[in-house]
Amino acid sequence: MLMLNCDSSGLPYYRHSSGSLSYKSSLPTQHRLPGPCTCPDGSRILKDHFPQDQYEELMQRRAKEFQQYKARTNSILSKLLFALPNSPLQYPIQGVIVRPLTATAIPGMSSSIYASVTNVSVFINLMLLGAITSNPSFITIFSVYFCLLDISSQVTIVTKTFLRYKQLRVLLDSIRKFYSNIKVIIADDSLEPESITGENIQHYIMPPAQGWFAGRNLAVSQVTTKYFLWVDDDFLFSEKTKIEKLVEVMEAVPELDMVGGSVQGNKFHFSILYEEGDENEGGCLYRKSGGKFHSLPSYPQCHLASGVVNFFLARTDAMQRVRFDPKLQRVAHSEFFMDGLGSLMVASCGDVTIDHQPKTDGNRNPTYNKFRSPGRNDAEFKLQLHFFKNYLKCIRYG
């Protein structure tokens, strides 16, 4: 059962009988209508980034993959069915699809009745003014992480490095200044690996130049704690880098899968606005920099968002389900959150911060800079991947 409430700021939300929260978004209402979606101004039209002589064959392959995807994922509950009214109300009993954190009109009911939840595709049963999710259930074995209450038993620090051993060693020294026993996992695809040793440090050597997301996958695959903290190899722990505060938020709001902090005051949170298009062209997506949704109850410094900065605490099992696409070697960050849209609940908390090491002549590496700066081919490939893999018609990075 869902009950309508308002938080301390007056924002409406639904409280399930289980205690979980679902907010009604302040974004413009999205109505599901058949037909093409509308590309935001300034969008990249993705089909324009393919050679013309390959386009028709690519469209056919994409359409086939999309139909196979629907065959695997669609449920009998996806069909829209209505309960005929015995009272003045008619209501859908299954098949209503809503977008994450976006108000969606409930078909067959008054235009003033909306659903707003955190899943991309949720099948909603409405019983008069209450609602329950209705998905098929299967018997599963209960599985949770066993851990003690100390921070080292709950969290592993994870990073990826490439040709930046000076910065990496400074990072490790700063970690040990504040967290002497916490485990650190390093994925390293440097061209000529150096030895990194120390208590509770795991250093994994990869084939050279495998890329950003491949390294993340390797590092996260080795985490055995409930949470991991992602940091870049040139970050610097300080008195304000309080992992415990991030854990507190995750424990208090168990629906959360990730909570980001700030890097020297930069939170870099963003929202992802997705409009479903027709089956021929695909959807329209807008990544809005600085975008956020509602604050978390009891944590006004934290807001729900679609994505956060490269300093975040994440629930290990949730991140392993979404996975970082290793095809993206250099131009990659928002793309993980696009893949996780609707299956990950993300928040940003600006009161937990980490520093960034200053760039000096002593730690500059021309070879690193060559790999760090993506070429045109990398950017083009990312747009092509969005077209085929994410079934998008257009995308705007704002």
UniProtKB/TrEMBL annotation:
Q: What Gene3D superfamilies does the entry give?
A: Spore Coat Polysaccharide Biosynthesis Protein SpsA, Chain A
Q: Which part of the chain is the Glycosyltransferase 2-like domain?
A: 156-255
> Which GO biological process categories is it annotated with?
UDP-N-acetylgalactosamine metabolic process; UDP-N-acetylglucosamine metabolic process
The record ties this protein, via InterPro entries, to: Glyco_trans_2-like, Nucleotide-diphossugar_trans
- Gene Ontology MF terms in the entry: acetylgalactosaminyltransferase activity
Signal peptide feature range: none
Pfam families per UniProt: Glycos_transf_2
- What name goes with this protein? Glycosyltransferase 2-like domain-containing protein
Organism lineage:
Eukaryota, Metazoa, Chordata, Craniata, Vertebrata
